[in-house]
Amino acid sequence: MNPNKSPDPLYPDLEVTKELEKQGDNETAFGDKSPGVRRIEIIASCFTTWHRWVLFISVFLVAYSYGLDGTVRYTYQATALSELGTSSQISTVTVVRSVVAAAAQPAYAKISDYFGRISILFISVLFYAVGTIVQATSHNLSAFSGGAVLYQFGYTGVMLLVEVLIADVTSLRSRLFFSYIPAMPFIINAWVSGNVASSVLEATTWGWGIGMWAIIFPAMALPLLGSLVEAEWRANRKGLLDEIPSPLKTLAQPSLWVEIFWQVDIVGLILLAATFALILVPFTLAGGTSNIWKAAHIIAPLVVGFVVALPAFIIWETKIAKHPAVPFRLFKDTRMVLAPICIAMLLNTAWYTQGDYLYYTLTLAFDRDVTSATRVQNIYSFCSVVVGVALGLVIRRVRRLKWFIVAGTLLFVLAFGLLIRYRGGFSAHDFAGLVGAEVVLGIAGGLFPYPTQVMIQSAVQHERTATVTSLYLASYSIGSALGNTIASAIWNNSLPKHLLNAFTRYGVADASTLAASVFASPLALVAEYPPGTPEREAASEAYREVQRYLTITGICISSLLVFASLCLRNPRLGDQQSLPDAEGFQVPVLTKEKTQHDHSPTRTAVENDSVTNGNVPHGYDPGSMEADRNRSTKIMANKV
């Protein structure tokens, strides 16, 4: 690679003036990389084509494991909560998990940038296994939720690091296709998960169904960890990592703990988690009675969240944090950063309004068994992956994303229109309508979520790839929490009275008692009352009506997706790791005569003649210029 013709976007020529960027109240040299980022760049430079494919296959195995686990675990979760008599609290468990996921994303990004991808991936696998064991052995809602939190913390780390690793080793034009490697297992899992869940529940309990993944998942993660450790060992043997401190050595030096405190932004992460928890969780705890909204344990967290935690978080991140976990300055790029984040948030908010209670609706209002209900739930994932993989191959040629994203959002709105029409019924026609709506929803899901992720990754330099990926995935989690909160509020406040009214109209004896029983444990009604009985017909009618409320809410939210997609830019994706003008800085164009600079409006400190006058900016090591340039060329030659 000739640096005079094609400047490396990851390692700009060190003779070129480095720009400075503003983060909070602290100026840092633009282009300086955290130890973890430098470590993974060097490790990636040691990958041959064979090692790269081993990495991708290992990612597939990990994704297959957590994908199948997540699919069947949702079924086990519904069964567990029904047995515990707390099925109406399914959204509470999901919201708690979403809050943990949203707060954990930036934490994992910051920590992995500092300590490296490999060590944090190992810790994530450990949390995954421990949380699974706690969930499998729980006997009440509190223990089940606690295990879900630990499991979610591990799952979130694995999912984020897998996506970041793919971004670390692929170019923009190839990234969409390779980003679908973690999602490809859904093509298989969508059809086998129903059989797995049904067979496990027939042969044993939901506890064993969850608990077996404490063994399976770590075993499937070993090839990925092994491939990364082997590449790191080869880099160490060549002496490429000698100047980068290892995570253990860093922790062993108390003098660096203060630096770690600021670098990881521990205070910001705590405030972020507190804000999410205080604002989102109380909505689902309010239950189905409006009087509960007057209770102190609901009002107090909301007040503290909105009045104290949220303002404190914003002030800390914008005024105090030296290396903010959520760099608000990036949001100034509304078309390439803020718009994608809005899309991620709105997508999951809308999706969960129809998907949160879909399993109960399928079993009770459509009379589907466990296998069929689980498969219908997975249609979205199956169709979105098939369409997305095909789109990834197309994008390698087309190199543009925007209008595929816009088309996807329009189809998403259409799918919700179909879901409003087909929301229940025991006939084959009604069920086919629902399946068709889920297929359209899945096609839409293949056209815009992952392309939008590639869009936001392209807008920043490699140093912040993990950060923006975490913000994008955190927006998914926030959207999940919002969607679950909305769905729970509608479900808990509407279903009890609709059940009571329906049972009364059908002349069911002891209507109030049965309504309360069905609300708490709907699967028990399915087993006791077949279609055609007054009890089943009344309950199905109530479920269909509440599902109508949910899907109408979803179409209103999804319509905002179209507007957000139209706000996106439509850059051409090249062979670089990020766009040449990422973050508003034009990559300098080097010629034999002189170096040309783009005078970016975000430029803050270094004058144009800093290098020509001999003033080397902070962060430069003139003695390592040639070595860095050679390392730059080698790494970019290895990019997919």
TrEMBL record:
Q: How does it sit in the membrane?
A: Multi-pass membrane protein
Superkingdom of origin organism: Eukaryota
Q: Does the keyword Ion transport apply?
A: yes
Name any Gene Ontology BP term. Answer: monoatomic ion transport
- Basic and acidic residues bias spans: 592-601
Region: Disordered; residue ranges are: 592-640
Q: Which controlled-vocabulary keywords does the entry list? A: Ion transport, Membrane, Transmembrane, Transmembrane helix, Transport
Q: Which SUPFAM superfamilies would you find in this protein's record?
A: MFS general substrate transporter
- Which residue ranges have biased composition labelled Polar residues? 602-615
GO CC field: endomembrane system; plasma membrane
Major facilitator superfamily (MFS) profile domain spans which residues?
55-525
Question: What's the main place this protein lives?
Answer: membrane
Q: What is this protein called?
A: Major facilitator superfamily (MFS) profile domain-containing protein
